[in-house]
Structure formats: structure tokens, C-alpha cells
Amino acid sequence: MKIYSLKLILIMVSFGAFAQTKKEKDLASIKAICGCFEVNFNFAETFNYSKDSIYQPSENKYDKALEWVQLVDSNEDFVSMQHLLIVGDILNPYVIKHWRQDWMYENTDSFPYAVNNTWLYKSNEASEVKGQWTQRVFQVDDSPRYEGSATWVHVDGRSFWSSNADAPLPRREITKRQDYNVTLRRNHHEIFDWGWSHEQDNDKLVREADKKDVILAQEKGYNTYRKVENERCIAAQVFWEDNKEMWALVRKQWNTIFSMRQNIQLKDKVEGKRLFQYLFALQSNAKEEEISAIITSFLF
User: Fold this and answer.
1) Alpha-carbon distance 98 to 137, whole Å?
2) Per-residue confidence at 144, pLDDT binned at 50, 70, 90?
3) How far is residue 104 CA from its own chain's centroid?
4) pLDDT 10s digits, 194-220
């Protein structure tokens, strides 16, 4: 074992020999997203550009929730985490599988959203994503939603990540609005000592084939995740332990689809039901063949 003199140690420290690497800081920031949080969701439409004189802007949205963000898998190039909502009476809580996010380092295979439940495969040059992390966001049934790639920034005591991504309509509007069909999301995630924030500056786009996108309106989103004691999210932890094997099989099926490196187009419904309705109805011991058949039935 090497024994360093105090003078040599001081020199090494001054030159950053024991400092965290950039990638280690990135991973620490990403993993800080995990835990038990009190969440505030805030959205407000800021500007509209409609030529319709009776245009009605979306109502402001303010909501609160208790959410557990479960670390599902991680290594030096990949982090996967599952969001779980805890609702209902504090003595008899009900857990809802929410969205999932995966973080991939220097990822070259991307699936940007196009329109009409279609994600187009794109192969990126390694130079385009050097040092970057892709955040791939999934819907509650683990189908794709949107993704963006950018560099984590650590400067002046701040750690943040910002990117742009086309996405389907948000869940809060998908049953209320039919006058636009794509959301251009400008996502900003930042880590704080109290938790983390997700800030958005979004365009509501009308996208039609062979036409330039039209901005119908814009909105501001500001969601805060304030860390609380993990014990408050015990119900979600138990839920995940009971159901994680089934959802691992769901992810396995989707990973197979992504590995084909082809465009993905999904049906909105099959026999009158959405994909999440089929998957949420499964037992925790559901077989891989049953899960595969359900997901495959939604593929064009």
C-alpha cells in the first residue's frame, strides 16, 4: 500500500486528484431524483397565437401528490427509475404506477416523437452525443413518450440538465384538447439540497404532413419534488416489491422492440381498451407470453 506524505496529499488535492469526475457528478445528480417526495405540479398557458376569436386557453393546473421514485437499475452508463404515485387515505393508501425515466450515457439510438403515436428511429453519430445523457421518458404502460439528449452542467454550485423534445399531448390535456397534436417540450431538471425541480417552457404545435409546424400556444410548467422521509412512501415500496417481476417482463418486451432499431407506431386502442388498461389488469405472476401478446397487439 502506498503511503503519501501530507505535503504530497495537499498537492494532489490542489490538482483535483481526489475530486469527483464529471461523470460521477452526473450520476450523483441523476440518482438524486430517486426517493420519497412531496410533489407540486403547476402549469399555466402563457401566450396563444390562435386566429380563432373564441379560442379558450387551457385552465391553470395546480396539483399535489406524494410520489416514490424507485431506482430500478443502474451502472456507470445507465440509470432507470420508476415513479409511483401514492393516493387515498393515509391509513389505506393506493399506489398507481406512474411514468418511468431511463438515463443513457452517450446513447446513439434515439426514437424522437413524430406525430399520431409514432416514434421515428434515428441513429446518431457518437460525436453528436459525446458526454451527453439521453433522458428517455415512458408512459405508465412503459411505451415510449419522449426523449432528449444533453449534457449535465455543474457550475457555481448548481447541477442541471436542459433539452428539447417533441412529445404527445400531456395527460392533463389529451382528453380536453383536439386543436393541437404535438408538444415541443423544453425540459430543465435541476438538483437542490431540498430535492429537485422540473421546469418546462412548452410549445403547443399543430403538425400536419408536408407543412411547417404552427405554434398554437405556449405554456409554463414548474414541478417541484421536495424530499421527505422514505417511511412516508412505504406503500409504494411494498407495491414495487410485489409487482417488479411483472414489470421487468414488460420492460423486456419493450427493450426487444427498441433493439430492432425501427420506427414504432402504436394503436390508440385495441378492442376498445388502451394498453395500460390491459397491463394494469394483469396479475403480478403474469407470464411473458401473455405480456408479449398484449403489447404486440398494439403495434402496427
Assistant:
1) 11
2) very high
3) 12
4) 999 999 999 999 999 999 999 999 999
The string of DSSP codes covering 135-190 is EEEE-TTS-EEEEEEE--EEETTEEEEEEEEEEPPPTTTTTT--S--EEEEEEEEE
> What SS3 class is residue 207?
coil
| Of the candidate ranges 8-12, 89-93, 100-104, the one whose mean pLDDT is the lowest | 8-12
User: Amino acid letter at 204?
Assistant: K
User: For residues 78 and 105, is the Cβ–Cβ distance under 8 A?
Assistant: yes
* Residue 82 burial class via C-beta count within 10 angstroms: exposed 0-12, middle 13-18, buried 19 and up: buried
- What whole-number distance in Å separates Cα of residue 85 and Cα of residue 278? 19
Confidence of residue 91 (pLDDT cuts 50, 70, 90): confident
pLDDT interval class at 106 (50, 70, 90): very high
**Which of the following CATH numbers is that of domain 16-229: 3.30.43, 2.40.128, 2.60.40, 1.10.3470?**
2.40.128
Phi (first) and psi of residue 272, to 5 degrees: 80, 5
Q: What is the pLDDT of residues 215-237, one digit of tens each?
A: 999 999 999 999 999 999 999 99
Helix (H, G, I), strand (E, B) or coil at 282: coil
Cα separation, 37 vs 72, whole angstroms: 17
Helix and strand counts by DSSP (H, E) for the chain: 5, 15
Residue 86, pLDDT above cutoff 50: yes
Tell me the C-alpha to C-alpha distance, in Å, between residue 172 and each of 16, 181, 298.
Answer: 47, 13, 23
Q: What's the maximum distance between 2 C-alpha atoms anywhere in the chain?
A: 78
Matching residue, cell 426487444: 256
Distance of CA 287 to the CA centre of its chain: 27
Q: Which helix (H) or strand (E) holds 12?
A: helix 6-14
